[in-house]
Amino acid sequence: MNLARVVGRVVATPKDAGLKGAKILMIQPLDSGLRPRGSILLAADATGSGAGEVVLYVHGREAAYAFLPDVVPTDAGIIGVVDEIHVEPSKPGLS
Question: How far apart are CA 11 and CA 66, in angstroms?
């Protein structure tokens, strides 16, 4: 699982039939400090998340599992909305 922030929404009228009814969001991957990393991705949303929220996402084959028994052709899927994040300080000598 990975962290990202929802930064936009995509509206596509003509699309694959498997995406009918699926909300497609633009997400910015984040590092553990919630700083942007990498390029913005498009992800099918299984959670009802919205703009500005920090979400958990998966990519690859597992991205479609959140929509079972429906078959959604996606390689990135939002599977959770983050309520809180607690980061423990790193200990000296550990990396």
Answer: 21
Q: Which domains are delineated in the chain? A: 2-81 (2.40.50.220)
- Torsion angle, CA of 42/24/30/64, rounded to 10 degrees? -80
CA–CA separation, 43 and 7 (whole Å) = 11
| pLDDT by position in tens, the chain (length 95) | 899 999 999 998 888 888 888 899 999 999 988 999 999 999 999 999 999 999 999 998 888 888 888 888 999 999 999 999 887 877 776 65
pTM of the model: 0.84
Tokens representing residue 19 in the block:
């995406």
